[in-house]
Here is the input.
Amino acid sequence: MIRIYFTDENIDQLRKERFTHPHPRVRIKMETVFLKSQGISHQEIGKMVGITQDTLRDYLEQYKSGGIEALKVLRFRKPTSPLEEYWLIIEDDFRKIPPTTLSETAARIKKLTGIERSPKQIGRFLKK
Here is the structure.
């Protein structure tokens, strides 16, 4: 169990921000830590908020190490395609002679970059 000391001021701020913060993920974090401050068990908090025990522990550790401000930090994973670094080369080549199909596009990208992707993946990459 993670032991955390809560001041009345922190509890009041958690109580308020669990409903008023503009980002829904932060509101969930605030709700989680607020429920912890009320002495509710980790399992009950997980059920009430709809998060796993690992996520609950992450939120509590964030609060323990950085307080309420740490709960406001969002770290979304934003994957990028290896093709991104070749975008200018691909664009230049396609402006000279535009491909007519996704299969042709995939073949030309493979020839230009050495990276092989399905026509469907190529279509998603080009839409970005």
Remarks:
- The first helix runs from residue 8 to 20.
- The chain has two domains: 8-71, 82-127.
- The mean pLDDT is 93.
- The chain has seven helices and no strands.
